[in-house]
Each structure stands twice: as C-alpha cells, then as structure tokens.
Recover the amino acids of this structure.
C-alpha cells in the first residue's frame, strides 16, 4: 500500500518560515492535499491539488514539489498556526485515500 | 451552508457494534464522495472508508469485513456500521466530503467519539 512519510515535528519562531515535507514514491504524479488540525477540532483543508488554497486560507500557506517530496510552507508563522499538519493523496491502485503520519508544528 | 453532523458514538465493549450517522445539509450526498476518517488518541488521521457517488465502496484493510459504509438518499445521510469492534478502533470518527475521486475533503463534520473498552 502507498505510504506518505512526514517528520514528526517541526519547530519555528514566530515570524519565521516553517516547511513541512511529505515524501512518497512518485508523489509528483499525485495531487497532494494538506490539512491542519488543532486539538479538539476537526481537520481544516489548507492547501489542495499541490498548491491551491481554499477560500479563507491566508496566502501565508503554500504548497510545492521538489524531487520526490511535497512541501507545505507557512510564511510569517503565527502562534495560531501551532497544530498538527497532515498530507494526503488518493492512491489510484487501491482506491484508498492515504494520510501521512502528521507533523506537529510548534511555535517557539 | 454545507454542514455535516455525526452522531452515534459512545462506549462499547470489545466485539460489540455501533452505527455512526453523518447527516448532511446544503448538498446531496448521493452526488458526492463521502468518507469516514478517524483519529485515535496519540495517533494521526487514518482514512477508514469511502462511498462513491455511483455507490462503489472501499475500506482500509484493518476494517474490511467488519465495517460497512452506506447511505440513505431520502435522509441525505451516510452511515458507518461497525461490527466486531476492537480496542484499536477507539478514535474520533469524522465524516468528510470530496467533490471528486482524487480531490481533497473540503468539508468535515465535528466528529463523534467511539470508545471500545471493557
């Protein structure tokens, strides 16, 4: 089955840039989506189809690819960005949706 | 306004059953791809099941044969029948809507907690 790999944690100071990576075989051939989840809340979509943003999501959130890795970049990080972030794709071989293990973003 | 409201969670003994409901408003479930996603304590998000607009259904391997996803178009509601529950099924279960087969889940419910324990 398809596997997405994320670092367990990322720490960044307020105002700096956070980069959260998501690795998977031939990930560049898939549409990658990113979700933010804060404690006690439902997940929120922050980037979809690699680099698009839903309405209401700040421009500080962006998505990109590099080699075999998708990256969620959060610019000018704020305390309110502290959350768990998950990447997700659809695996066409199994018709399963797959989530990465998640990355906890800590704002120092 | 799009809304998804889950219900049916609770405490159940190992080997027991529960049926979760996801009542939708603001759109038609039968025209969308409806998912169940869970998050166990201390773990990440895990996709559980999907029902396609055409009626096809898919499950993650760990629940195949134990869980069944279905929908009632007249009630605009999606269900997850969970049988032979195990401790590792303990999680908050979310209902989520996709527009298309490879797209993201734009809309999520608030979740319902399922606890499997004796």
């Amino acid at each position: 089955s398809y596997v997405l790999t994320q670092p367990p944690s990322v720490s960044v100071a307020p105002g700096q840039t956070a980069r959260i990576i998501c690795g998977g075989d031939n990930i560049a051939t898939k549409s990658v989506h990113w979700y933010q989840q804060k404690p006690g809340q439902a997940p929120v979509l922050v980037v979809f189809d690699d680099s698009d943003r839903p309405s209401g999501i700040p421009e500080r959130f962006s998505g990109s690819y590099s080699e075999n890795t998708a990256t969620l970049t959060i610019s000018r990080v704020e305390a309110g960005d502290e959350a768990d972030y998950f990447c997700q794709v659809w695996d066409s071989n199994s018709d399963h949706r797959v989530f990465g293990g998640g990355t906890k973003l800590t704002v120092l | 306004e799009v809304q998804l409201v889950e219900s049916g969670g609770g405490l159940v003994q190992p080997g027991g059953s529960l049926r979760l409901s996801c009542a939708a408003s603001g759109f038609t479930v039968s025209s969308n791809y409806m998912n169940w996603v869970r998050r166990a304590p201390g773990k990440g998000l895990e996709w559980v099941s999907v029902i396609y607009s055409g009626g096809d259904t898919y499950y993650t391997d760990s629940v195949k044969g134990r869980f069944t996803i279905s929908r009632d178009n007249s009630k605009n509601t999606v269900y997850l029948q969970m049988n032979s529950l195990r401790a590792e099924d303990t999680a908050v279960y979310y209902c989520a809507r996709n527009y298309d087969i490879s797209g993201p889940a734009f809309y999520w419910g608030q979740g319902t907690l399922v606890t499997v324990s004796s």
Summary: Residues 46 and 95 of chain A are 23 Å apart (CA to CA). Chain A touches chain B at residues 1, 30-31, 33, 35, 37, 42-45, 48-49, 54, 84, 86, 88-90, 92, 94-102 (CB under 8 Å).
